[in-house]
Amino acid sequence: MKSTDIRIRDVYLEYEDFHYRTPIKFGGVALDRVTILNVRMTVESGAGKSATGSGSMPLGNVWAFPSRVLTYDQTLGAMRFLASRVAGDYSGCGQSGHPIDITHQLEPELLLAGNDFTALHQLADPVPKLAVLVVASAFDAALHDAYGRLHELNCFHTYTPEFLPNDLGHYLGSEFDGLRLHDFVSPVPKPRMPLYHLVGALDPITPADVTNPVGDGLPEYLAQWIARDGLTHLKIKLNGDDIAWDVERCVRVNTVAEEVQRQRGVTTWWYSLDFNERCQNVAYLIEFLRLLKVRTPAGYDRVQYVEQPTARDLKAHPENKMHEAAKLKPVVIDESLLDLESLKLSMEMGYTGVAFKACKGQTQTLLLAAAAQKYGLFRCVQDLTCVGASLIHSASLAAHIPGVAAIESNGRQYCPLANAPWDAKFPGVFTITDGTMNTSLLNGVGLGAG
Q: Taking residues 45-71, what's their average pLDDT?
């Protein structure tokens, strides 16, 4: 072992369950609850020094394991099984090295867990690779956190050759020979970042839309959110199968935003559009953008990018090429981004950007972020309704990856109860002011969650 290398000594996992303040719609499914996977991992150096790190991630089974034949409890149960299997793989791997090396070597074994569960239970829908990545991300986060704590450094200071001897070619192939990860990662977080606020398909836009007030003191409709948090970035969820509804939804959001921003004296703000892969084809997206530009030219101009409009399985849908749509707006992959192969395929199909998520793992995200920078792709970081430690993790990625335009954080809207214990410790991260998150705080040891 190098003096900086670690080996895993112990792995522990547990769960937390929360109900959402209001439902959120994913791919046509209204979701009102979440299960959080929390992991603690103890590592030790060759000299016998030890440290314990933590990782956390919403399991997000509706997003990571969508199914028309399996129930919510069945897909959640599958992911909980995967967690136990992944815990065993990490604790029993016997490997030593840097966290990126350990996870990179383990990933093929981790992915077998999904295949094994599918075969064992003869599932009608096989466990997707994305579901395995989401589960494994909490363990990978705990490993990176423990490594930083052992060396008493923020994780983003541990990707230099002093700690990580291999170049990117070792992980990504000869195209990346000689390139070093630390050249694609900022050791210091951006001090502040704009926050993308989610306008869910079920969320009230105007007071007239509020048919069942929550009454908890938080905003009830969009104008209140904009005014309270000083928002300048809105992510609009769309249906993808009703073009009239989708266009009208954007027009209504823009109308409300224009009025509130006029009152605030704000002249510049942005939208992202998320179809959750429900557009049947690219023609739908192009026609939507055309109609939106006709209805509200200013609203159209405010669209910063479009997220994953069509099916996530790019190989199964080679007809969904984005070249023409990407001439209008950047089009980014989200659910499709599973590895370097899928990133390259998306580029061949005309995608011009990538959405990174902590729920796909610290290791994979950093490696693919380096690739995206080399290829000159548009970059953004989104979350999986991350709360607590998982939001710190997600926000840290956004603040340390160069070129990321803004950060997403919708846990404060849908699951504020899970954030409550963290708010005082990280002022300006869980409570937003001036439309931005205070990311300067994300420089503590490990992943920075304390």
A: 96
385 with 34: CB under 8 angstroms? yes
Residue type, 129: K
In 3D space, the residue among 249, 253, 328, 316 whose CA is nearest the CA of residue 283 turns out to be: 328
Angle separating helix axes 99-121 and 129-150, nearest 10 degrees: 150
Residues 6 or more apart whose CB falls under 8 angstroms from that of 63 comprise 26, 27, 335, 384
Across the range 12-17, mean pLDDT stands at 98
Report how far apart the first and last C-alpha atoms of the chain are (Å, whole number): 28
The 3-class secondary structure across 42-103, one letter per residue, is EEEECCCCEEEEEEEEECCHHHHCCCCCCCHHHHHHHHHHHHHHHHHHHHCCCCEECHHHHH
Domain extents in the chain: 6-175, 192-441
The confidence score (pLDDT) of residue 25 equals: 86
Nearest CA among 48, 52, 70, 72 for reference residue 60 = 72
DSSP string, 150-201: HTTSBGGGS-STTT--S-THHHH-GGGTT--GGGGS-SS--SEEEEEEEE-T
Query: Structure tokens of 139?
Result: 């363990």
The CA-atom distances, in angstroms, between 43 and each of 104, 147, 448 are 17, 7, 17
Which tokens is 182 given? 């630390």
CA distance 301 to 434: 22
Which residues are bridge partners to 356 per DSSP? 381
Distance of CA 350 to the CA centre of its chain: 22
**Comparing C-alpha atoms, which of 409, 401, 331 is closest to residue 368?**
401
Instruction: List phi, psi (to 5°) of 292.
Output: -60, -40
CB 259 within 8 A of CB 307: no
**Residue 24 identity (one-letter amino acid):** I
When pLDDT is cut at 50, 70 and 90, the band that residue 345 belongs to is very high
Place of tokens 């899928």: 342
Residues 192-441: name the CATH superfamily. Enolase-like C-terminal domain (3.20.20.120)
The hierarchical CATH code for the domain 6-175 is 3.30.390.10
* Digit-coded pLDDT (tens) for 148-197: 999 999 999 999 999 999 999 999 999 999 999 999 999 999 999 999 99
Distance between CA atoms of 343 and 354, rounded to whole angstroms?
Answer: 8
